[in-house]
UniProtKB/TrEMBL annotation:
SMART domains: TGc
Record region (Disordered): 1-22
Record bears the keyword Translocase: no
Gene Ontology molecular functions: peptidase activity
Entries under InterPro entries matching the protein: Bac_transglu_N, Papain-like_cys_pep_sf, Transglutaminase-like
Name under which the protein is recorded: Cysteine protease
Biological processes annotated in GO: proteolysis
Record domain Transglutaminase-like: where: 210-287
Length: 341
């Protein structure tokens, strides 16, 4: 594998390229590390109700989490109208969530998440990424590794086994192939063969529906990737978070995309695969890239159902409808706005 040029399938692989595969970020001992990037993150979820509702219960996974590549410098959740209860909870996988209760009549609900984070560069070892993928199954894990769990190997509610994803898995995870090449190929294959279409699916769409239509959004593509990896017997987890955004001239939240990155105006999703010797390796099929300093991680689980950005129950009059608006801003801090850590 080369870290100085994009990989392409050669005659040795005996297959047709799925477009340019993403560059694998390998560690070079003599290469200086990039400086961490500091971001201010603002996530707004806003509901407007056609008729007043009397009670709102909700749980939000919007707090960035500490990882080997990310430090959380500050975080605050603000709810309007003022909640009767606002408490934090840490789940089995170490994700922090916020429980909220609004216990009075209201016609709107705004949930703001404000955070400051520092995101470091990700680099992976050449030797672990060059191993045959068969050496990344649980029997090869060896000493306990952070986050290693058979939960991420077995099927889950939104990622059942025995789907058409096994065909993708068989195409990518060919015998003896280096795991790094497999992950680069999986990223390119999903990006090339699936079409990003925000109108094609909903949060309730099944994996089989996505595999059949070959249309969807980042949540769907992440589920496809997770399913393909698990079909090979490796551990894969669903990751939620944000992409770096660019502020508009007027400073409006989430109004200007960040270059070619898809999904920067709302919550984003990708997947992470466990590679013994170098840890969890994150890939984003939606944008055909290995995850880097443009990404902010909030939570991970077996699939979307474990870590939705906001879910809850609303009590109100029968037939009451609502409209939803979501906006995200992930803006690098300038030298003049950074504060001491």
């Amino acid at each position: 594998m080369s870290e100085n040029a994009h990989e392409t399938r050669s005659g040795q692989d005996g297959a047709t390229p799925h477009g340019a595969r993403p560059l694998i970020p390998l560690r070079q001992e003599d290469a200086p590390a990039l400086d961490p990037v500091h971001y201010r993150v603002h996530h707004l979820t806003s509901y407007r109700y056609a008729k007043p509702v009397t009670r709102n219960y909700g749980r939000a996974h919007v707090e960035p989490r500490a990882t080997p590549h990310q430090r959380v410098l500050s975080h605050e959740v603000v709810v309007d109208p003022a909640p009767a209860r606002l408490t934090a909870h840490t789940d089995f996988y170490g994700n922090s969530s916020t429980y909220l209760l609004v216990d009075a009549p209201h016609e709107q609900l705004d949930v703001h998440s404000h955070a400051r984070v520092s995101v470091a560069e990700r680099r992976y070892g050449l030797e672990p990424m060059s191993r045959p993928w068969e050496q990344c199954t649980p029997e090869h894990w060896g000493a306990p590794m952070p986050g290693a769990s058979l939960d991420f190997v077995h099927p889950s509610p939104r990622v059942p086994g025995g789907t058409a994803a096994r065909e993708i898995s068989a195409e990518v995870f060919r015998p003896g192939r280096a795991v790094g090449e497999c992950l680069a190929e999986l990223t390119a294959l999903i990006h090339t063969e699936f079409t990003y279409d925000s109108a094609a699916t909903t949060v309730t769409s099944t994996l089989e529906e996505v595999l059949g239509a070959r249309h969807g959004v980042c949540q769907d593509f992440s589920h496809v990737g997770v399913a393909a990896v698990r079909e090979a017997g490796l551990a894969a987890r669903y990751v939620s978070g944000y992409l770096r955004t660019a502020p508009s001239a007027g400073g409006a939240l989430g109004t200007e995309p960040a270059g070619e990155m898809i999904g920067s105006a709302a919550s984003h999703a990708w997947l992470s695969v466990l590679v013994p010797g170098t840890g969890w390796v994150d890939i984003d099929p939606t944008n055909r890239t290995f995850v880097d300093q443009r990404f902010v991680t909030t939570a991970w689980g077996r699939d979307y159902a474990d870590v939705p950005p906001l879910k809850g129950i609303v009590v109100g009059p029968p037939g009451a409808s609502s409209t939803l608006r979501v906006a995200v801003g992930v803006v690098p801090e300038t030298a003049g706005t950074e504060s001491a850590d």
